[in-house]
Amino acid sequence: VRIALDAMGTDRHPAVEVEGAVQALGELPGEFELLLVGEAERIEAELSQHAGVDRSRLRVIHAPDRIEPGEPAVTAARRKPTSSIVVGLKLQKEGEADAFISAGSTGAVMAASVFLLRPITGVDRPAVATILPTTTQPLLLIDAGANVDCKPNQLLQFARLGSIYVEDVWKRPNPRIGLLNIGEEPEKGDERSVETHALLAKSELNFAGNIEGRDVIRGNCDVLVSDGFAGNVLLKFYESIMGFMHGLLRQELAQNPDARIDIERLFHGFDYTDYGGAPLLGVNGVTIICHGGSPPRAISSAVRMAIQSVEMGVVAHIARAVSGGTAPEGAAEGA
Amino acid sequence: VRIALDAMGTDRHPAVEVEGAVQALGELPGEFELLLVGEAERIEAELSQHAGVDRSRLRVIHAPDRIEPGEPAVTAARRKPTSSIVVGLKLQKEGEADAFISAGSTGAVMAASVFLLRPITGVDRPAVATILPTTTQPLLLIDAGANVDCKPNQLLQFARLGSIYVEDVWKRPNPRIGLLNIGEEPEKGDERSVETHALLAKSELNFAGNIEGRDVIRGNCDVLVSDGFAGNVLLKFYESIMGFMHGLLRQELAQNPDARIDIERLFHGFDYTDYGGAPLLGVNGVTIICHGGSPPRAISSAVRMAIQSVEMGVVAHIARAVSGGTAPEGAAEGA
Prior knowledge:
Shape of chain A: globular
Distance between the termini of chain A: 29 Å
Oligomer: homodimer
Order of helices and strands of chain A: EHEHEHHEHEEHEHEEHHEEHH
Radius of gyration of chain A: 20 Å
Mean pLDDT of chain A: 92
Strand order of the largest sheet of chain A: 3-2-1-4-11-10-5-6-9-7-8
Helix content of chain A: 40-55%
Structural class of chain A: alpha/beta
């Protein structure tokens, strides 16, 4: 397995990416090779600070340009052919890598992935799936913001994409699919939700019904299907409030040295850095998108996710499910 | 000011409502009268347990029927004319009360309010506004779940309703209006958000732009405008995660008796019981909807909200704003 890793994505690039790569090589099992993509000189300078790196499993691919966080995603992806994002994805397109990881501009990584890898035949819209920690076990939220104004049939596809990912990569058999909605009963919510509920109910998926905002935290499903609008609001709010609570308690404990509360342990399961990144599902390839603020730990977790996605053949599974699902794709104007 | 209070709404009715009423009469300033609506015998039995209640300011209005939480809201509101919700709202309709408060079925209270009080001329859809605590000062979220599939012009109306409420009842001059969205720039989000952004930007309102999920907690606006779908997901999730964090810390502190952390103080600003209830804005009257799990404190807070809404003339302000706003209501198919 060969993983192309954008070395220019994080806020502290390429130091964080290089350290994450070194961690991954040292800790993760299995045979894999890392291709660090970015300004070669800066990457080499960082590498020189890590002793004993196994260079037989790590190559540096020069890419002089960088897509900045503020740039319009689609145009940047097209106009910067020597950017680390485009160069890294092209390695996959040309068969020199099996996966791509980036903590750069989310919009640019998505746009370039769709543009270069192309959607899987039968997938209307590739979607970003992110992990949401709950009080029981984490769930996969799809879509987390890549797609708005989704149609019911597209939401059904998100459910299929998420179900396969959770089964293959998280090793949960027959994942329970929940639909994010504002009531439990099938007839609740907006028009789209009512139609999507009906499609999910008659699909081959293990549909667990509607999930309200207040039930998300209980983890009553494995895959939570949502339009990217509500999904993104939920995800961003979740991250911010956990960050806020963490800060509030740290402050409180600083004034209370007698308390033996291990706040890091308390918030451990809610820390996104443990989970790596968010897979872009539905393209002909493996793309994992990380936070710009990712620490090295998140990068090496993303490498682990990428390896599992490649080894389990997630892309092939999705292609089979989308072409052979119970929904009438053949009847649609489609691919 | 005469406030009709549904005594049969909370999970522990009528005990909670009676205690809340007694608290309100004892603590709140100003001249007001409470009309307790529900099963007269049970209400009287509860009242007999509170010594020294000023009965000259408290009347009991008999309503033998109750709309149960699970009942289909619209049909129940029409088919149960002697329910506490319908009887209480009719008091307002007939001029015998100036406001109505209920912790009963939210859907039934909304449906009966719209049915009996009627929307204000020019208001397409009355909306539920709820308080969201933030790290700075609370904001008003509108709509919190009463309306889905909203059009841009309806969202603009929600902004007007919320702006007037916050100015009149919260006494914040020229409230900043934020639009819940998945990006900061005007062109971000779904089609509806882009159009609503344009309408708000050219309106007479103090528009502060888009607010992302991660910025909600910072309180950068006074009124957060949203379709009821995303608004409800956000609100319900918020309530559940604060409840979860509260429980987690209480558990942790129970195992750590040396810690001198006042968890109730820490969560104080995030407790909805301090805030009373959610006003239904846009109807010809004052309706405040409380949680089914409200304690007496929340009921008396709702009484305070109702008094302020009546005294400030929120309904008349909304009627003026909706008929005289800068948006071309006259040109629409209208009223």
